[in-house]
Amino acid sequence: MVEITVLKRSRTEAALTQRKFFKKTAKGKVFKVLRERYLRDDVSCGIDGCKICHDTPLPSYGDKNHSSFPDGHFLLPDTNVFLSQMDLIESPLFGPPIILLQTVMEEVRHRSLPLYNRLKALTRMEDKKVWVFYNEFRSETAIVREEDETPNDRNDRGIRKATQWYAQHVALRSSSIRGQDQNSPTILLLTEDAANRFKAEKLGLSALSVRKYVEGMKDSPQLLDLLAAEGSDEIEPTRVATGRQVLYPEYLSTGILVAGVKAGSLHQGHFNANQYNYLEGNVSVPGFNKPILLIGRENMNRAVQGDVVVVEVFDEKEWKAPADEVVDQESTLKDDDAEESEGEGDAEKSGQLREKEAKMVKVEKIASLRSLERLPTGRIVGVIKRNWRAYVCHIESTSLTSSNSTSLSIQTVFATPVSRLLPRIRLRTRQAPTLLNQKILVTIDRWDATSRYPEGHFVRALGRAETKEAEQESLLLEFEVPYRPFGKAILDCLPQQGEQWVVPPKTESSKEWKDREDLRGLNICSIDPPGCQDIDDALHARVLPNGNVEAGVHIADVSHFVHPDTPMDNEAAARGTTVYLVDKRIDMLPALLGTNLCSLRPFVERLAFSAIWELSPEADIVNVRFTKSVIASKAAFTYEEAQIRKDDPHLQDDLTQSIRLLNTLAQKLKAKRMAAGALNLASPEVKIHLDSAESSDPIDVEQKEMRETNSLVEEFMLLANISVARKIEEVFPQTAVLRRHMPPPKTNFEKLQDLLEKRKGFKLDVSSSGVLAKSLDLCVDPDLPAFNTLVRIMATRCMLSAEYFCSGSVGKNTFGHYGLASSIYTHFTSPIRRYADVLAHRQLSAAIGYSPLHPSLHSKAHVERILEVVNKRHRLAQMASRASVEFYVGLALKARGERGGGTGVTEEAFVIRTFRNGIGIFVSKLGIEGLVTFKKDMLFDAENYTMTVAGMVISVFDKVVVRIEVEKDRNTHRGKVKMTLVSPIDSKGM
Amino acid sequence: MASRIEILNEGGFRSDGRRQFELRTIEIDLAQQGQADGSAVIAHGLTHVLVSVFGPREARMRSHTMHDRANINVEISLAAFSTGDRRKRSRGDKRILEFASTIKSTFEPVIQTTLYPRSQIDIFVQVVQQDGGLLQACINGTTLALITAGIAMLDFVCAISGGVHSTSPLLDLTNLEENDVPNMTVAVMPKTQKVSLLTMDTRLHVERFEEIFRLAVEAGSTILVEMKAAVLGRSSRLIESVDSSTQPHGLGVENDNS
Ligand SMILES: [Zn+2]
C-alpha cells in the first residue's frame, strides 16, 4: 500500500513556485503556459554519514587523493565541464565523487542529446560515484530567474547556491561529530568560467578550473591528455587571432537554416563522405531523389561523416558528375605539417596545398556529356547536429617533431582514422612517441573555419596495431558495439541455480509446467553450423493419420528467463543483438542463458515456444497453433551431418524420416515463395578457417557452402516468422513488432541497368521483385559461372535494408517484405541473439493468453524507441562482422603470401568500377573488394565503363587476375591490402 | 531545439517536484459568492474553478419540471485566459456541453433529488484557470458548493485524475502530464466506496487500469479529508459569527464519520 499525501505549498513562496508565461506557436497562436513547482526538504545530499538525509551512496569524506584537499572533497562541476570534458570524467583514472546538479543535467540535455546520454550512463556506472542532486526541488537551493538575468546567469547562480548549500550542509554534519577534530570535506565548484569562479570565491566557496584541478591529481599526466582542445585563443591568448586565414565559409545561423529548410530553399540530411575520394561527399535529402553532391573541401565545409547538415543546391547548370578518380588523403596531404598548419599562418604553403587540392576537384570537361551521372550539386551552409564520437586512429609518424620516446613535451600531431570516411584529426599530446604503432582512440572537439583539420584530443590507447586484442577492441569501438562484461545487477537476474538449473519434474503445482505442452516425446532435432553453441531453434515433422503432415518449429523460451524492465532486459535492449566477430562473440544475453539454459541442446529438457502447423502434402497451411512447451531434442546435427543422414538410403529411423519429411516440405515452401516473387539475394560470404582455438591464426579462407539442409532450416524459420507476424499483428494491431523490407526506388538500379546493358546486353527489369528475380536469373554468362552471383551482389547493394518497425506507426500497405515477397514478417526464431525476437515472444505469449502483456509493449512510443535502437545496433553489428572478416582475410592473405615466398597471392577477380586512374575489383573467392590504382591517368571512357591500359581495353565485368599483397604503410603502420593487375597485363610499376 | 520535459525522472520526481503519489496543494474557499445559495472556490495546484449552486428553486421552464424529483442543470463557462489558447469558448461548444453532461450524470445519483420534486438545482461552474485535472476540480467544487447550499446528498463525491508513465502510476496530473500519459478521472463516494464516474479518453492497459483505479479510489479518501476540514471550518466560523438563533446552512450530508 502506498501513501497518498497532499503537498502543501505556502502562499509566501508563490514567486518561487509558480510560473506563467506566454508561448507563441509557429502559426502565431498565443498560448498561456502555467507551471508550478513544489519545493521540498527531503531531497537528499547523497553523502554517507549525513544525519539529515536518507539514501546516501557517496563516501563520507569524498576523495582524499588530491594534493590540495587532504580533508577530502566532492566535485560539483558546472554544465560546460560536462559539455567539453566528458572523456576526462569518463576515464577510469578519474575517481572523485561527483555531485551532479539537476540544473546542470537539464542544461546538458538542452545542449546535446548524445552528451546527455553519456552523462546518464555515467550516473549508472558501477565504478563511478555520481549523485544527482535535485537542487531545483529543494527549498533552500531553488532559485528563480531575475528580471535582468540571462538563463545562463541564472543557472550559474543556481549552481553557486547549491555549492554554498552543500558546503554548509557538510559542515553542519562535521561539527556535530563530538570529540573529533575532523575538518569537513571541501565542496569544489569546477568551472572554466573565470567570472563564475570569482563570484564563487567571493561567497567563500572553493572553485577551480578543470586544468588546475587535474594538475593536482595523482594521474595527472595521463588525465591532462584527456582534456578537450580549447579554442586556441584561450590556450595562447598572446597569439594574434586576426592573423589567421579563414579557410571555410562561416555557417549560417540556426534560425536561417531552419527557416530555409522549412521554405524549401535549403535542404537537410546526413553527410556521407566518399570512401574513394576524400574531397567529395554527398547528402541525401527529402527534396531530391538523388543525393546532393558536394565537391571540394570548401563545399563540404567541415562536415564529418554522419553529421546532420543543411545544404544549398546550386543552379542546375552547375551540376556535376561524381569524380572518376581515386583521391587518397594520406598521399595528397602527407607533407602538411601538423605544427605549422595549426596556425595556418604559412600562407604560401597553405596556398600550394589549396592549389593541389583544387586540381583534384577539377571539373572534367566531358562531364556534361554524361548526363546520367550528373547529380544535383551544392554546398553545406550549416550543421544542425554533429555526430561526433570517439574514433579509432593511428598517429602519423611523419607529423611528429620529436620521436624520442622519453620526450614528454607537448606535440601537435595528426591522427588518421581507420575509417576512410573521416578526415585526419589534429591533436596535442605529451605522449606522442609512445603512441606510435598503437591504435588509439581520439575524439573531435572542434573544427573552426580557420583550421583545415578538426581538432581533437587523445582518449586512450588500445594496444599495438595488428595485435588481435587491439584490432578487436578497435573494431568494437568503431562500430559502437557495447562490450563491457555484464554487471552484477544484470547477473543477479539469472536463475539462482545457475548451471544446475533444470526443468522441474512435471507436477500439478509446478509453475514452469503450467499451461505448457509436454512435447518431450517428439522426435525433435536441431540443425546448425558446426560448433554452434547458442542453439535457438529445433524442428520436427511427422505424418498425421489423415495424410497431412505435422511440422513444428521450437524456439528457446527466452522470455521465460528475461522479464520485462529488469536490468538484464534493459541491457539486452540496449545491445540489441549478439555480435559475431571471427574470433569472438559479444553476447546480447549472459552466457548462462545463451549457451546453456536457453540453448536447445540434445538429450536435455528445455523450455521452448513452439509453432506447430498442420500442412497438406503440398505444404499448404491447414492450421497453425502456438504453445509454450517442454522439449527434449534427440540430436544436434551440423548441416553436413543432417545432409549425409538424409541422403543415406540405409537409414530409416524416425529422426531421419523426420528430416526427409521436413526437406520435402521445405522444397515446396521455397518453390511457393519463389513463385510469389521472392528474391534470391546474395552477399559475399566467406568462411575463415582458424588454425586452432588457441592461436586463432587464420590458415585459409573459403566460400561458404550451401546445402539442402541450410535451405530446410531457412524455409521453416521463414514460415514461423511469417505465421507469428500474422498472429501478433492481429492481436496487437497498434504495437506488434514487425520487420519489413521496403521496395527500392527504381532510380537506385539505373547505374546497374546501364552497366549490364552496355557491357553484357542484359536488360534488368526492376518493376517488381518478381520480375527482378526472373531477370536476375537470366543474367548468366556460361563462361563465367561466378558472374550471376556478382550481379546479385550488385543488385542487393541497390536495395534498401530491412528494418524493424512498430505496426501502428506506419501504413498497413507498407508492411511488406520485398526480398521475401511476404506481405508481413517478423523475427521470432532467434531470441537468444536478437532483441526484436524477445519482444515478438512476449507479444505472442500474450496473444495466446499465456501471460499478460507488459504495459510497455502496449505503448507505441516505447516500442518505436526500442526498435530504433535495435535497428541501429543491427546495422552496426553487420558492419562489425564484415570488418572482422576483412581483417582476417587480410591476415590469411599475408600468411598465404608468406608461405608462397613473399610474392603475394594471385586470384581471379571481376572489374566492378572504372576510374580515370584505377579500377575497382571484386575477388569473389575471398569476398573482398579492392582497388588497383595507376600512377597516371589512363585513356578512360566513362560512358562505356572502359579504360585502356597499355593498349589493353579493360571494362567493367571483365575477369582479370590480380596479385594481392598486404603491405604495411610506413607512415600510419597499418596493414593495407594492395592489389596489382597480373592479367590481362601486369601493372606492376604502372 | 527544446527537448521534452521528463515526466518522471530517475530520482523519482515529476516535472513539478512531486513524487508519484503526491497530490498538488488543495485550496478551498467556501465563502459566499454573490447571490448563490452555495458556492465553492477550489484549486488543485494551478487549476482554479468557482462553482455556484442555485436552488433548489422552482423550475423556470415548464418542460424541465419533473413531478417526482428535482431537475439538475449544469452550465460551464471558461474565463478568457483560462485555457491554453486565447480563443473564447462559447457555452454551446461541444466539449463544454459534454463536460456539463458528465458533471450532471455524476451528481444525479448522489443528490437526493426526490426530496425536491418539481424543482430545479442550477450548478454554474466557472473555470478560472487550468493546469490539468479540470474535471476533478469541477466535481470536487460542485460537491462543496452543493454542501454549502444545504442540498441533501448521499455522500461526498471526491474526484481525482491518474495516469501511467511507462509502468509508473501517477496521481493528480498537470496539463503537461495529461498531454503525455494515458490518463483517467475517477470520482468516488468514500463512504460506500462506490464509483460515480470514470472517464478515459486514452487507451490504457487493463492491468494498469486496475492499479490506477485502486490508487484513485484511495486518493479519494485523502481528498475527502481536505474537503471535510474546509466544510467543518466554515461551519464553525458560521457558528462563531452568527447569532445562535440563526440556523447556519446545514450540512447536506448526514455527518457520520467525521
Ligand atoms: Zn544530507
Automatic annotation (TrEMBL), chain A:
Similarity section: Belongs to the RNR ribonuclease family.
A cellular component term from Gene Ontology for this protein is: nuclear exosome (RNase complex)
Which SUPFAM superfamilies does the entry link to?
Answer: Nucleic acid-binding proteins, PIN domain-like
CDD domains for this protein: PIN_Rrp44-like
Q: What is the lineage of its organism?
A: Eukaryota, Fungi, Dikarya, Basidiomycota, Agaricomycotina
Q: Name one Pfam family in it.
A: RNB
Question: By its UniProt entry, which PROSITE patterns does this protein fall under?
Answer: RIBONUCLEASE_II
Biological-process GO terms, alphabetical: nuclear mRNA surveillance of mRNA 3'-end processing; rRNA catabolic process; rRNA processing
Q: Sorted alphabetically, which keywords does the UniProt record give?
A: Exonuclease, Exosome, Hydrolase, Nuclease, Nucleus, RNA-binding, rRNA processing
Asked if Lipid metabolism is a keyword of the record, the answer is no
GO MF terms here are:
3'-5'-RNA exonuclease activity; endonuclease activity; RNA binding
- Where does the protein end up? Nucleus
Q: What is this protein called?
A: Ribosomal RNA-processing protein 44
Q: Annotated region Disordered: where?
A: 325-354
The signal peptide here is: none
Q: What InterPro entries does UniProt report for this protein, alphabetically?
A: Dis3_CSD2, NA-bd_OB-fold, PIN-like_dom_sf, PIN_dom, RNase_II/R, RNase_II/R_CS, RNR_Ribonuclease, Rrp44_CSD1
Q: Where is the composition biased (Acidic residues)?
A: 336-345
Species annotation? Crepidotus variabilis
From TrEMBL, chain B:
Chief location category = cytoplasm
Q: Provide the coiled-coil residue spans.
A: none
Q: Please report the stretch or stretches of sequence annotated as the Exoribonuclease phosphorolytic domain.
A: 22-151, 155-218
Keywords of this entry: Cytoplasm, Exosome
Task: List, in alphabetical order, the GO biological process terms annotated in this UniProt record.
Answer: nuclear mRNA surveillance; poly(A)-dependent snoRNA 3'-end processing; rRNA catabolic process; U4 snRNA 3'-end processing
On whether Cytoplasm is a keyword of this UniProt record, the answer is yes
Molecular function as annotated in GO:
RNA binding
Q: Which residues cross the membrane?
A: none
Origin, by domain of life? Eukaryota
Q: Which SUPFAM superfamilies match?
A: Ribonuclease PH domain 2-like (SSF55666), Ribosomal protein S5 domain 2-like (SSF54211)
One Pfam family it belongs to: RNase_PH
The record's subcellular location field reads:
Cytoplasm; Nucleus, Nucleolus
Q: Which InterPro entries match?
A: ExoRNase_PH_dom1, ExoRNase_PH_dom2, ExoRNase_PH_dom2_sf, PNPase/RNase_PH_dom_sf, Ribosomal_Su5_D2-typ_SF, RNase_PH
Q: What Gene Ontology cellular-component terms does the record carry?
A: cytoplasmic exosome (RNase complex); nuclear exosome (RNase complex); nucleolus
Q: Extract the PANTHER family matched here.
A: EXOSOME COMPLEX COMPONENT, EXOSOME COMPLEX COMPONENT RRP41
| Family assignment from sequence similarity | Belongs to the RNase PH family.
Q: Summarize subunit and interaction data from the UniProt record for this chain.
A: Component of the RNA exosome complex. Specifically part of the catalytically inactive RNA exosome core complex (Exo-9) which may associate with the catalytic subunits RRP6 and DIS3 in cytoplasmic- and nuclear-specific RNA exosome complex forms. Exo-9 is formed by a hexameric base ring of RNase PH domain-containing subunits and a cap ring consisting of CSL4, RRP4 and RRP40.
Q: What is this protein called?
A: Ribosomal RNA-processing protein 41
